[in-house]
Write a structure and sequence with these properties.
Number of helices of chain A: 20
Structural class of chain B: alpha/beta
Structural class of chain A: alpha+beta
Oligomer: heterodimer
Helix content of chain B: 25-40%
Largest interface: A-B, 34 and 34 residues
Helix content of chain A: 55-70%
Number of strands of chain A: 10
Radius of gyration of chain A: 32 Å
Order of helices and strands of chain B: EEEHEEHEHHHEHEHEEHH
Largest sheet of chain B: 6 strands, mixed
Radius of gyration of chain B: 18 Å
Distance between the termini of chain B: 41 Å
Strand content of chain A: 5-15%
Strand order of the largest sheet of chain A: 2-3-8-5-7-6
Number of strands of chain B: 10
Distance between the termini of chain A: 41 Å
Strand order of the largest sheet of chain B: 6-7-8-3-9-10
Order of helices and strands of chain A: HHHEHEEEEHEEEHEHEHHHHHHHHHHHHH
Strand content of chain B: 25-35%
Chain lengths: 611, 248
Amino acid sequence: MGRFLLVCRLAARDLRRRPAEAVLLLLAITAATTTLTLGLILHGVTDHPYQQTRAATAGPDVMAVFYPPTSKTNSPVDLAGLTALTRRPGVTGHSGPYPVTMAVLQANGHTAGAEAVGRDRAPAQIDQPRLTQGSWVGDGGVVIERSFAEALGVHAGDPVTLNGRSFRVAGVAVTAAVPPYPQVCTSGCEPNTPRQAGSSTGLVWLTQAETRSLATSAHPLYYFLNLRLADPASSQAFAMAYMNEAGQSLGSTGPFLNWWQVISEQDAHLVKGEQQVLVVGSWLLGVLAVASVVVLVGGRIADQTRRVGLLKAVGGAPELIAAVLLTEYVALAVLAAAAGLTGGWLAAPLLTSPGAGLVGTAGAPSVTVSTVVLVVAVAVAVAGAATFVPALRAARTSTVRALADAAHLPRRRARLIAVSARLPVPLLLGLRLAARRPRRVLLSLASVAITASGIVAVLIAHARLNAQQLSGSAGLDNPETDRVKQVMLGVTIMLVVLAAINAVFITWATVLDTRRSSALARALGATRRQVTVGLSAAQVLPALAGALLGVPGGFGVFLVVKHGGTMAYPPFWWLIALVLGTLLVVAGLTAIPAGIGARRPVAEILQSETT
Amino acid sequence: MSYTGTASVLYARGLRKTYGAGEGLVRAVDEFDLDVAPGETVAVTGPSGCGKSTLLHLLGGLDRPSGGEVRLAGQRIDQLGERALARLRRDAIGFVFQAFHLMDELTAVENVELPALLAGRSPRAARRRSAELLEQVGLSNRAGHLPSALSGGQRQRVAVARALVNDPLIVLADEPTGNLDSEATLEVLRLFDSLHEAGQTLVIITHDHRVAATADRLISMRDGAFVDETRLTGGTTGNLGALTGLED
């Protein structure tokens, strides 16, 4: 017990000695755990609003669509078949059939396809869309599904046209009978097949008379029928049995029956892209967090060599040293995991409402035990992996060497040294400084490559959206893509922040590590500016490689998170600007610690460094 | 930088370096005057902490004085900017440190050529000059060795070669034998003696009277101030080993 207390006390005091570094470590790991938590708990989070919407709109268990025979588009729909369906065993209620036709909607400068559903003015017992704005259908008044209305940018009272006829937006509503735009699907719906905004139709409600008047020979009427079953859980079995009996299957011309679970899954598509981005983003952030922790821990331990020597000199065994260091970082990791879990839990509802085309909010999603275990394990693994090797090395360092605060001998790269002799002085110094610590160079490179990958993925997402807007007839915003872009942007900002922290700390670690060499170079005639530029160049050179690697890396990230759809290629100049911008940012960021390091008087450094 | 005059190569008047203020004021160097003639070897000696190294840093432009003036080859250097001082250190001054201060990852020849590369010499010219100097200090067979593979005396000889690579007006040596055993000390002193014979101007900071005895002139310091000056002849005419008591 005494030993445990001693370890805790030493760890706590060490953390208090350098609070800023402890806070940065905490932030780095928290960023990774928050995104991981979001990614994990977002799965299924839409169940809550879907159920709320289903309750608020008296959502059907099964929705049937009856089309006219394909060979005779002018033939009427088999209404007798519709009536027969309402009398099948297990059916306890129905609404409809409601006439539907495809129409061209124009509003706010946009043109889009819409399924116009004819509804009674009186409320229905089953599937009565819930108004979020305005009033229900009436003469000349159209009600627009909320996601579709948001994409069109229209509100209650705005003018629209359907097949060239003028209407007024009477209201905006949500339904649980059809997935929201752009996932609107009334027949042959495949839960895992996403739809694109440009190729999707939206959903609008009109009076039955106006719907019938919009029908044309090219777009004849078809019908929606909503069913309530005695056992909602058996909806799929009911629908499949009927379609088998009718000789229909998914992909043919119908009649088609959708069941509520399919619609719920289609709703989940709205957050599936976000979830994929967050999970991939959390792994990228996790890797960056490892890099941050390695740099910070490495810097701290290098700075602590003498303290380690003192602990050993007064009888501290190597295990004690390792235990103190590991305790410090594991404690920070557990704190970061707790912060990440809380942050993720609080942020999840913001990502799923209110634009999901559903009423209510996602509410506080449940954080399962497995999520907690995984997030804590990742945080501890990040801290442990980054700390283990330096802690072991510190513990194994001989007491005399540690007391002398002797730096580790740098690596020698003969070829680089020979090549650098031909370069201008700042590059000569930069290349030689970089070559001294190849692992630090790799960390720097990885950090920039990961961040650049995130940025390239966002650029590709933008390029894809632009391409969709150019090629799609609707030219509408895709709320799903917008959400993915927003989340991707958020993750990328976190990546940039972490990478910036890494760049500054790697430079500072290099400044500390090379203070004697830098001072010596100045004593031998290098100017302060040359040394500063050299230190900065030591970071810019790996940053260049990292930025270049980030380009293919970004395409790889996008392939993982693209959530269906096609690959797009951003303009070449965007990528060039990214590489050049990365170099400028890294140069700017690293110039600060490099400049501060080079400001210390040469004589002072050379006198204090006796090795 | 070339020097053709007959006046002092290095000249200091009223040189001061203070730290702190009020009651905590420390006078590391206090109104120090110095003239070093071309080709002369001057030893500055005194107890530890008397300000010898600080004086050397002021003379070499590594530190800025609180007062007084320093001239090198007639040019006032205490008011120069950072860049001009760097150029001065590169072209006109060679430093030898007690702790050698060699780059650990560079071989002997790479260490020697570094100031030449910093001065903008071509890699080939820098390498050729470095090889010559290593031969001059008796280390041509160790040119490809890292400092960790060299003895203390050999490291200091590499440091001396490095100090000479840009043909400086003056070499400033700070306790050059402070980290060496007797044999290595003798090696380094012989090297300085040969430099002296070749006309190289040297200022050696040392608290070792045996080293000081090899100079033309010995200046004593205490508490940052000049104490006395002694002209010597042993360094140029006597047997070095016998003089220093390092050789039977």
